Amino acid sequence: MAAAAESVRLRLALRRLLLRAILGLIAAALALAGLALAHLAAILALAPALGMLRAVLVVLGVDVGLATLLLAIAVRRRPGAAEREAARLRDLAGQELAEAARLLRVLLTLARRRR
Predict the structure, then answer these.
(1) Are 21 and 34 in contact (CB under 8 A)?
(2) H-helix or E-strand containing 115?
(3) Is-above-0.70 flag for pTM?
(4) What is the DSSP letter of 80?
(5) Quick one: DSSP state of residue 77?
(6) From first to last of its 115 residues, what are the pLDDT tens digits of the chain?
(7) In the chain, which residue ranges form alpha helices assigned H by DSSP?
(8) Exposed, middle or buried: residue 58 (CB in 10 Å: 0-12, 13-18, 19+)?
(9) By the 8 A CB rule, do 39 and 59 touch?
C-alpha cells in the first residue's frame, strides 16, 4: 500500500516538475523575444538621430558593457558567511566521522585480542 502511494506521489511530482519546466522554457522564450524587440525599438529610436549603423553600434556597445559588468560581478562573488559556516560544519562533521571510524577500529582490535 505504501509503495503504491509513493509511486503515485512520485508520478504526480514528476508531472508537476515537467509542467514547470515547460512553462519555464516558454517564459524564457517570451523573455528573449521581448528583449529582441526592445533592442529593435532602441535601434529604431536612435536611427533618425545617429543613422542605422551607429544606432546598432550604440545598442551593441551597451549590451557589451552590461555583459562585461555582469560577468565582473559574477566572477567577484565570494562565498557568504552562511556558505563558509556550512563548509566549516561539513569539514568538522567529516573530521568527527573519521575520528569515530578510528575509534571503532581500535575497539574492534581490542575486542579481537580479548578473544
Answers:
(1) no
(2) none
(3) no
(4) -
(5) -
(6) 777 888 888 888 899 999 999 999 999 999 999 999 999 999 999 999 999 999 999 999 999 999 999 999 988 878 888 888 888 888 888 898 889 889 889 888 888 887 7
(7) 2-50, 52-76, 81-114
(8) middle
(9) yes
Residue 42 neighbours by CB distance under 10 Å? 16
DSSP 1: -
Question: How far out from the chain centre does Cα 101 lie?
Answer: 35
Q: Name the residue among 60, 32, 55, 31 with its Cα closest to residue 44.
A: 55
- What pLDDT, on the 0 to 100 scale, is given for residue 63? 96
State residue 111 phi and psi, 5-degree precision: -65, -35
